[in-house]
Specification:
Elements (H helix, E strand, L loop, with lengths): L2 H4 L13 H11 L3 E5 L5 E6 H11 L19 E2 L4 H11 L3 E5 L5 E6 H9 L8 H22 L18
Parallel strand pairs: 3-4
Antiparallel strand pairs: 1-2, 4-5
Helix pairs in contact: 4-6, 5-6
């Protein structure tokens, strides 16, 4: 199975110069908690979550209307291509502790998004009365990796320090 078969094709996006207010409103209206941030050529340049928005507002003490997306977005973006095998995408998600993976075409243009939820839903799809235990195991493996990484960070003696004037997340 390849990524194109499971990915969501219609993906809301944001631009670096948009305000966090605009991005938050879009997430609310689209019912999503994150969006890829794209440049003028629709290539991914960042990733923004609802948590990034909240933390930027908190650490900067400013209105969402006064903060641009580029100050809160993660600048490290890991992508896969539409023709990649699902196992490759899963490996990227596992290795980088990601719940979502932007999907690009051969020119690097965003064409979709693959999420852990997409893989989990596919694993439960009725396959002649059976569950795809291979996909179920992959979901558990990715989620376990994400959780164990967060637990190590939470219990580390020197937690990361974020500047109060800027909040940026770089995913591992």
């Amino acid at each position: 199975m390849n990524v194109k078969q499971l990915m969501r094709h219609r993906v809301p996006t944001s631009k670096p110069e948009d305000t966090l207010n605009t991005a938050a409103r879009m997430m609310w209206e689209e019912g999503c908690g994150s969006v890829p941030v794209v440049d003028a050529q629709f290539r991914p340049v960042g990733f923004l979550t609802d948590r990034d928005i909240c933390m930027a507002a908190y650490t900067q003490g400013r209105s969402l209307r006064d903060i641009s997306v580029d100050t809160a977005m993660a600048r490290t973006v890991v992508c896969c291509e539409e023709g990649d095998e699902l196992e490759h995408a899963v490996q990227l998600m596992r290795d980088n502790c990601l719940r979502r993976l932007p999907v690009v075409n051969g020119r690097g243009v965003l064409i979709g998004l693959l999420s852990l939820d997409d893989i989990a839903c596919e694993s439960q799809r009725n396959l002649r009365g059976a569950t795809d235990h291979n996909l179920t195991g992959l979901v558990g493996d990715i989620y376990g990796r994400i959780c164990s990484t967060r637990c190590r960070r939470r219990h580390s003696p020197d937690p990361p320090v974020h500047s109060s004037s800027r909040y940026a997340v770089n995913y591992p």
